[in-house]
Amino acid sequence: MTKYINRRDFLKRLGLGGVAVSGLSLAGCVPEKGKVSPEGTENGPIPTDKMTYRTNPKTGEKVSILGYGCMRWPTKKITGENGETEEVLDQDTINSLVDEAIAHGVNYFDTSPAYCRGKSEEATGIALSRHPRDSYYIATKLSNFSPESQSREASIKMYRDSLRYLQTDYIDYMLLHAVGGGGMENLHQRYLDNGILDFLMEEREAGRIRNLGFSYHGDIEVYDYLLANHDKYKWDFVQIQLNYLDWGHSKEINPRNTNAEYLYDELAKRNIPVVIMEPLLGGRLSNLPDHIVARLKQREPEKSVASWAFRFAGTHPDVLTVLSGMTYKEHLEDNLRTYCPLKPLNEDEMKFLYDTAGLIVTYPTIPCNDCKYCMPCPYGIDIPGVLLHYNKCVNEGNVTETANDPKYAEARRIFLIGYDRAVPKLRQASHCIGCGKCVEHCPQGIKIPRALRKIDHYVELLKQNDGTVPPKEA
Q1: With the C-alpha atoms ordered 41, 47, 52, 57, is the resulting torsion angle positive or negative?
Q2: Backbone angles phi, psi at 108, to 5 degrees
Q3: Which of these, 283, 273, 290, 430, lies nearest to 366 by C-alpha position?
Q4: pLDDT, tens digit, for every residue of 331-390?
Q5: Under 8 Å between Cβ of 183 and 191
Q6: Cβ atoms within 10 Å, residue 133
Q7: pLDDT tens digit string along 299-319?
Q8: Strand pairing of 75-79 and 137-142?
Q9: With b meaning 16 or more CB within 10 Å and e meaning fewer, what string describes 392-420?
Q10: CA spacing 20 to 30 A to 12: which of 125, 141, 267, 399?
């Protein structure tokens, strides 16, 4: 008796038992015409036969254009025997999300030993192992960031632990994780001098790794070096950050970023399939200033704001899959509607998005993607929570320059009350001592202590009810 549930059974559990299915190649959604959800996106049942797929040129595998990023699995709070509350991954909800994703044709799941404080691989493995192994592709990473994990022995142990946690004897898509951060020296320490890249290539030759690639963050010298040696390493795919803001405004939103157009073109001319991360810039492109939202809604009133970013990423023909960290069912369903099937952007829509990006960069948000690589803070600060609250208030027009502003009183109230609700007082920016331990882990290169100091200064000015000058982009 197999331990997994078959496709027909889990379709029944999802309430989709009446939908005809004929294998994994059928998946997707056709919104019911004329119905609109409260968020302004099309509503209605989501059938299972419209997912867009891209072909892996090496293996011929059909990969869903929507990939499930497993960095932001849902959590729940439990109370232990000692009465203390603990936040843990919500396995039942994770199972349900995976079931629904697979039911609608998603077959690429991306995780890492570093995600969800080290628990993502295990939770992902539990959820996926309930389905036939040939119905999904697993992507994971060698996330040997810390010095103690960079020896050959420790790195190999991490790789083998991934196989165990994911309950599999092979990895479909294996990545060197976040190369570029720390430059060439870091690449040598983590993958070259210890022989780990050679080891992974041997694992690929043995069939325990089906596709070998890397995810890129930061230093273009590393990116160019790895691609210049493509004949040696034979990269099967590469994961890059790509979205319509990074495409033409990468340096404006973060001086460390590399223009996404350059990254994509270098892969396309070598026929290396592209996996996209951060299509929403950590959610920033779904939480836009009100007038930008109105601009997008005027063009496509029945579509979500996020759908523009996902269509942009998927329009590029060499993209194999676009990752989305879908914590909630609503996120998953909205993305299914975008990619079932994908309607590529035309030339006029592309120009519209480029013009929209030009408007977005005029707002001084901090380029936090909520990846949580900076966590845990040794002093307990909720770094992403602080930065994201500030960005939210900027986007909503609730960061005001002066007490003479007619909207000052209301904006002040919204900012301060929202701050206390979003971030407990003991975890707010005022507790930052500037140790800088977070900076080295930030893939966006944010000067985090500086950003926290500016936000804390702004908060204090609001509390005093004096004229204020908001913190500028860090």
Answers
A1: positive
A2: -120, 120
A3: 283
A4: 999 999 999 999 999 999 999 999 999 888 877 778 787 888 899 999 999 999 999 898
A5: no
A6: 15
A7: 999 999 999 999 999 999 999
A8: unpaired
A9: bbbbbebbbeeeeeeebeebbebbeeebe
A10: 125
